Amino acid sequence: MTAPETDPETLRRRAGDALRTARERTRALTGCVDEHELTAQHSPLMSPLVWDLAHIGNQEEQWLLRAVGGHEALRPEIDSVYDAFEHPRAERPALPLLPPKEARGYVTDVRDRVLDVLETVPLRGAPLVEAAFAFGMIAQHEQQHDETMLITHQLRSGPAALTAPEPPPAAPDADRLPVEVLVEGGPFTMGTSAEPWSLDNERPAHPRFVPSYFIDTLPVSNGAYLRFIEDGGYDDARWWHPEGWERVRRQGIEAPLFWWREGGGWMRRRFGVVEPVPPDEPVLHVSWYEAAAYAAWAGRRLPSEAEWEKAARHDPASGRSRRYPWGDADPTPDHANLGQRHLRPAPVGAYRAGASPLGVRQLIGDVWEWTASDFLPYPGFRAFPYREYSEVFFGDAHKVLRGGSFAVDPVACRGTFRNWDLPVRRQIFSGFRTARDAESA
User: How far apart are CA 431 and CA 221, in angstroms?
Assistant: First the structure.
């Protein structure tokens, strides 16, 4: 959507398409394994896949059938079971979960009723329905859980259950790109007040002054990260945050998650496939501590969240902030690696059409990028429609990630979209790029 839509029929069509796209992906992620695999907990870090499936339906029922449609509860007795804040992931297998067949029937019943609501409810006036916001919110929620389920697929043992075509190669000019670009100091507009389906932590738009800095043209690659490993990066406390160093020592961490040494090289497991680590892909499955240690070793640092967003959205020629690095148009396969179209990042230097005005590439898609920033509210933040989406996570315990990954659908990925996680997390599809102060040039 290149500009906020107001025509109700266009909004209904967009919302319906987003809901159907999410459901097709959910079915693919839950339909490729047997019932045992759906009900098993493949890691204490993640829920059983069948929990995610029914949780998707329960959230859709609560917000779109009850809150928007005014319907009576279909299954009020399961609300507590699928409350993500009431039950930590490690405890969910012990809950009275709907079995796979019943969960599938429940989410199908909810969706059929939701599509009827979408056809009749006015899409203006109340904040939940203005511009079909609640429908967009639920489509994003389902896609976020689809990404979570894809992480579970990466953690599960056994043969591959998912397939996808290979991503495009690096652009022909990739080896001639500058290592970094200068972003001139000055103000820019951060966040958004106009994006109809933006979530509360992206709001409101506000001016932010950022001093001049340099930022990597490309994400840090596996090959570059291997140089850090081979230089003893995991054995030198100088590069590490104290908490990260303690964890590395205690857990014996010596490389990104899913990597191991074999012979004279490195191997990795990716969705059930064992393969040599490809040197030209963005590094994946690293914690914030690992990203920050690499940056320190390289004589650089992680960019702040504001620096990342300015590099991704600010157009020096016009002075305005774009929706995406390439402009205001929605992402296409030429712009970015999104939507589980591929099951891996594209090589660094791919997606020339997705570059920012300064020539920075792959800011959207491929890998989530850790930033130096804590997850904090913007000036003027207001929780909507519930505190538990963002507000309860604000503080210094969580670090911000930006840009999305190959596992993120375009509906849940914008130049303003904010993700956050604990700095120890490695199972997520996380990478990074580095920056440095202009004064250090």
Answer: 9
